[in-house]
């Protein structure tokens, strides 16, 4: 668990990082640096989007899987690294 903590601290220390959220396989937040309402909102929406993106990747090639999802807007960037489900 110390390795996970160190990784999260390293990510959070990068310039411009607003927060980090770790969720379980069901999309329930288990660790966050954001306030509760923001965490719940992002976790729920990103879980749904990640599941849809994973499904799309598998529809294209059943041997493939989603390993990383990057979403950029003019103001923000969200990076999702889903684990094996």
TrEMBL record:
<dbReference type="GO" id="GO:0005868">
    <property type="term" value="C:cytoplasmic dynein complex"/>
</dbReference>
<keyword id="KW-0813">Transport</keyword>
<keyword id="KW-0505">Motor protein</keyword>
<dbReference type="InterPro" id="IPR016561">
    <property type="entry name" value="DYNLRB1/2"/>
</dbReference>
<dbReference type="InterPro" id="IPR004942">
    <property type="entry name" value="Roadblock/LAMTOR2_dom"/>
</dbReference>
<keyword id="KW-0493">Microtubule</keyword>
<protein>
    <recommendedName>
        <fullName>Dynein light chain roadblock</fullName>
    </recommendedName>
</protein>
<comment type="function">
    <text>Acts as one of several non-catalytic accessory components of the cytoplasmic dynein 1 complex that are thought to be involved in linking dynein to cargos and to adapter proteins that regulate dynein function. Cytoplasmic dynein 1 acts as a motor for the intracellular retrograde motility of vesicles and organelles along microtubules.</text>
</comment>
<comment type="similarity">
    <text>Belongs to the GAMAD family.</text>
</comment>
<dbReference type="GO" id="GO:0007018">
    <property type="term" value="P:microtubule-based movement"/>
</dbReference>
<keyword id="KW-0963">Cytoplasm</keyword>
<dbReference type="GO" id="GO:0045505">
    <property type="term" value="F:dynein intermediate chain binding"/>
</dbReference>
<dbReference type="GO" id="GO:0005874">
    <property type="term" value="C:microtubule"/>
</dbReference>
<feature type="domain" description="Roadblock/LAMTOR2">
    <location>
        <begin position="4"/>
        <end position="85"/>
    </location>
</feature>
<dbReference type="GO" id="GO:0005737">
    <property type="term" value="C:cytoplasm"/>
</dbReference>
<keyword id="KW-0243">Dynein</keyword>
<dbReference type="Pfam" id="PF03259">
    <property type="entry name" value="Robl_LC7"/>
</dbReference>
<keyword id="KW-0206">Cytoskeleton</keyword>
